[in-house]
Amino acid sequence: MAPRIVIFDLGEVLATPSALYESFAERIAHESQAVEASYWQHRGDYDRGGSSTAFWTAVLEGIGVPATRQSLEDLTQIDTIAWTTIRPDAFDLLRRLSDVGHRVGVLSNATIEMAGAARRTDWGRFVTDWFFSSELGIAKPDARIYRYVTERIALPASSIMFIDDRQVNVDAALAAGWNAHLWTSPDETMNLLAELGLIDAV
Length: 202
Prior knowledge:
The protein is an alpha/beta fold. The chain has helices at about 20-30, 30-40, 45, 50-60, 70-85, 90-100, 110-120, 135, 145-155, 165-175, 185-195, and strands at about 5-10, 105-110, 130, 160-165, 180. Helices cover about 50% and strands about 10% of the residues. The chain has a 5-stranded parallel sheet with strand order 3-2-1-4-5, sandwiched between helices. α2 packs across α4. It is globular and about 55 Å long.
């Protein structure tokens, strides 16, 4: 069945923040590799709807840095903006899909702050269907999130095209009956969607 909706992951597919961990490290005057390790160690609960205060306090405690109200606010803002600012090529792709009338979705393991910020972006107008782990309390690759999305969009699973940068998430989508593709580059994604007839080849 030809895809009737294209669903994208957000982080590392549409948004590719540069120097993110260096930005965190600069704000708290610490080494970026340690910040990155602590960040991902504690990320799961935050992406499932946990609070930014609990998350960043745990991250900072993990590297021996005291948390202050201002540092927690600043780190949350840096994080939110970084993961909801998409690349120009991604903006163009969403626009092209929207312009020809295709449904466009986002399915992302993302925080409550990111879910709100993404909807307020200039590219948010191209997205018809939003799904965030923090709002659902379920994160990829849990099979339940794919079942939920399939039910909500009210389309056959085989009509969904999903693009994600993690193989485990792609495999879970395939198991749910979706068409799923591992993101590797903007050009490769553009070519794939052109081959499927969803956008014109450039």
